[in-house]
Amino acid sequence: MSVSRTLLALLEPGPRHGYDLKRAYDEQFAQGRQLAYGQVYSTLSRLLRNGLVEEAGVEHGAGPDRKRYTITDAGVTDVETWLGTAENPEPYLQNTLYTKVVLALLSGRSATEVLDTQRSAHLKVMRELTRRKTGGDLADQLICDHALFHLEADLRWLELTAARLDALAEVVRP
Amino acid sequence: MIRDLLLGLRLAVGGGRMSGQALLRLCMTTLGVGLAVAILLPAASATTIANEQSARSAGQTPLTEPVSGVDPLYQLDWFIETGDRYLQAVVVAPSGPDTPIPPGLDRIPSPGEVVASPGALDFFDTPEGSTARARIGGEVVGEVTKPGLGMANDQVVFVGAEPERLAGEERVQEVYSFGVPPSGGLRDVTMVALVSTVAVILLLPLLIFVTSASRMGAAQRERRLAALRLLGVSARQVRRIAAAESLVGALAGLALGGGLFVALRPLIADLDLFGVRFFAEDFVPAWPLVALIVLVVPGLAVGAAIFGLRRTIVEPLGVVRHGKPTRRRMWWRWAITGVGALLLGSTLFTEERSGGPEVGVALAAGSALLLIGVAALLPWAVEKTVARLRGGSPSWQFAVRRLQLESGTASRVVSGLVVVLAGSILIQTLVGAIGLTEPPGGTWRSQTPVVAEVSGERADEALPLLEAEPDVAAVHEITMSPLNVGAYQSSATVGLVTGDCAALATQAEVGDCADGDVFAVGTSAATGGDTGRFVSYSDSGPVFGPEWTVPDELRHIPAESASSLASSTLLVTPGALETLGGATPPEASERAYFATTTGDPKAAFVSAATALSPLGWEADIRPPMGLFDSVRIDESTAAMRGIMLTASLFVLAVAALSLLLLSVEQTTERRRPLAALSAAGVPLPVLARASLWQNAIPVTVGVVLAVAAGIGITLPTLRYGGLEFSVDAGLIGVVCGAAVLAVLAATAVTLPLLRQVTRLDGLRAE
Amino acid sequence: MTGPLLVGRDLHKTFGATQALRGADVSVRAGEVLAVMGPSGSGKSTLLHCLAGIVTPDSGSIEYQGRDLVAMSDAERSALRRTDFGFVFQFGQLVPELTCLENVALPLRLGGVKRKVAEAKARQWLERVEVGELGARRPGDVSGGQGQRVAVARALVGDPQVVFADEPTGALDSLNGETVMQLLTEAARSANAAVVLVTHEARVAAHSDREIVVRDGTATDRELVS
Ligand SMILES: Nc1ncnc2c1ncn2[C@@H]1O[C@H](COP(=O)(O)OP(=O)(O)O)[C@@H](O)[C@H]1O
Ligand SMILES: [Mg+2]
After folding, report:
1. Is the ipTM beyond the 0.90 threshold?
2. Would you say C42 and C216 are in contact if contact means Cβ atoms under 8 Å apart?
3. Which residue intervals define the domain ABC transporter in the entry (chain C) (predicted)?
4. I want to staple B55 with a disulfide (CB 3.0 to 4.6 A). Which of A154, B182, B279, C75 is the partner?
């Protein structure tokens, strides 16, 4: 899963402090494993270097000075490409898929499209497996079936998510 | 146990939400049991009725033993002929103050007074009755009450007369008292046998109705009960549950039947059953029989319901999965049929027409058993027939396969039909054949219609009265005298009918006749040249009169061209008597006058009879054969046909209803496959035709078997009675037509359902 | 590659208050296996029924081999379904009183084929779907999987151009479902019949060549968009 793309996407709705970013990330995706400050700032500096974000002024007040970051056009394009590209179907994908769905919702993009793209990719692999299975021996069949069942589980989860997008949107959008 | 019954009740009247089929089943069971009870209760009153009637008729028996101190009643039985029936009037006169009064009267009518029974009063209102009324004259002053009657519609008339006029009469009885002890009721074996056959024919369809009603729409219930059974409900519990449901209908039916009986009893008095009318108050069922009815009829309904469930109980899984049914037990079905056939067959070894009452019993029992047996064998027969059917168009295949899967309802439909149809063929053929046995003579009519034949002691006095009557065109005199021909040992008597040519023309087709001619009608015992002697009979033996020789030139007239009076006689003109020995018929010869008319014969007969009324019983006047009677026979045959037709149509309606229910049930059940077929492009007409065949096959089998069975039981019975066979094609035609209609109707009613089911809805998983 | 065999464009269908279809596009090419996916109640079956000419859409067009299905009379559509289409439903489509063999022979017999000929061909098809021994049995006496194979045989016996299968494995376990799907797609492919396969299961849809997704009564077909 890509933390840098997640942070980039979280910046899309508007400029934020590094601290805000960390909090937003932890709320939506941390699932008990919070992001370290160091990781946030190192990621942001990498994004700065690649021209995907830029600084948008410093806010003075109590505590340390706080830099605000904002996404560049190059950054928006990067997010869009990422969301639009299917993940390589493989087991234990849901973290990435979930992140993508939530980010699509947060950024007002079509989560359904994300899901459809993913389904297509999954089905393509499943078709390949099915074809292999039909031609293969019992061992092939069993191995393929294992993979097929896992992929099917992913897809089922996707369907379930798709069916609950409205509810999810309410939860993730404050 | 009570819990199971209650569960059954709940399933029957299910908490207010009763399924349409269950409700229909309940109603039909109620109706069937109700009708059966309503018919059985009057039947159970038969013994009461018979006892009461024999008690009354014993009470009416006149006793002529002189009793001192009693002035005898002069009583003369006067038969007034009015076509094919006669009215028995009793002419009465007291001989003194202490004269016994006949039962049913409160006093002895005075001269000019008439007391008539209600039946006689009704009769007086008919065209033929009005002539009787005219003959009797006088004034009706009262009604004969129940003690004076046998049946409620008996035609009894008491006519008052002057004692002096009766006193000298030879035919008058002197009655000193009335009444002997009753001799017991209905004992006639043949009668019992006949009644039992009719009862079986009438009741069997009803019982079949009851049993099939309690199994109507059963597939759904069977499936439900089978499901319960699979859940672990014991066989006994399932039986109790089923019993409770049909018990509701049976008990309601009992109440309905009892109610119907009580409500309709007063109306029985107005009901003309085969020309007999009963007293409503005599309809008191015998208590043991009532108990039997109350136990047996609901028992049958419940039993049928439980019996129908044997498959559910034995193999519930098969019911749930539409499996093949178990084999049925056959031996008792064959046994009943066999015994019936044997009984019927055995009567064929007796001589035609000569059978005694045992033959009658054998016939009745045989017919009844054969009918029951055929009804019981049918499910098997239909199964076998259908199992053999193969191929055909897809719709035919649907129907045949469906019947192969479930032909129980169809068979019950068929068995009901067979019994009723076969029964009606038997009964109507008997009635028809009896109607046919009217003597063949008498159909001949003379050119100028004869309206009345007058004879009797004072017939000569009638002559001027008749001639004065404007409706009567002419009156011809005829003398009838027996002539003894041949040797004394081997003598034969031939009737001589003497009259002038005009008179003889009223009796036969004499053609151009001249005085001196003699005609032989049909096969006469005398031939030309025979010599015979006139003879008359007295208490002390034959008295011979003058001799006469039959002329050689006899003219022959076929029997069909002569009246029944003239058949096998010699018609002789007076000239022939004079020329051949100058003999005249003796004084004792019977003399009759034949009145003819040019107008309406019936009206002329009525006026002639009225004109003769002053002569009373001393002159007999009767209409020629066929003037009034033909109508009556037709009427009673029509009434019988009506009853049989109604019964047949009723059973057909029940059959159609059962078929309809079956169709509806199966169509609903096949919702998915039907919808799938229709989606796959199978046209609705194919499915509709399948449903038509499915209804038509069993009904056709039923009608064909019924006609065969009907003729099968009718032939030996006709042979027993020596009657001719003729089938009432009209009745069979109507029933067959109605069968076709029933099938069409049942199919047509299923169509909308079929259309609805084959819409898309059937495809959606529930 | 030839053009599409069956095309539905902008299909709308309303049942009472329910909008079952609101703008669905779909195309089926000859010989392809097209999976129609989507959650339950999304309008998959309705779409299938429209394409098969079982129901007429409220608006939109359906073209089969260049013929306008919407404009056809009911009788014409029935005849078309009988001659050109085959059907497999989830369950319960076999006529219970007919034997399996007679069930399979039925479409041929309705088309006027002689009984002997029809039953011989039906027997071949039963063998082909590996239930040759069930010919004389009634549908009530066979298992769900066997029944579906008989249904597959019945759908294919008339050499249809398109087989419409609505959740054909919906009532079966995985293994039976797998076999039925293999038999169905193999047989259809070798007969060059297209299959419109309605399913919500990915594993079943994996037997297809292509899928479209129905969601809330709408569906887009990339083949049509391009
Ligand atoms: N004949 C019908 N009458 C009423 N509503 C229907 C009918 N057919 C379908 N629907 C409704 O249309 C919607 C789509 O149904 P359907 O096409 O069967 O969905 P799917 O097959 O995808 O589960 C559902 O809400 C369903 O209730
Ligand atoms: Mg569906």
Report:
1. no
2. yes
3. 6-224
4. B182
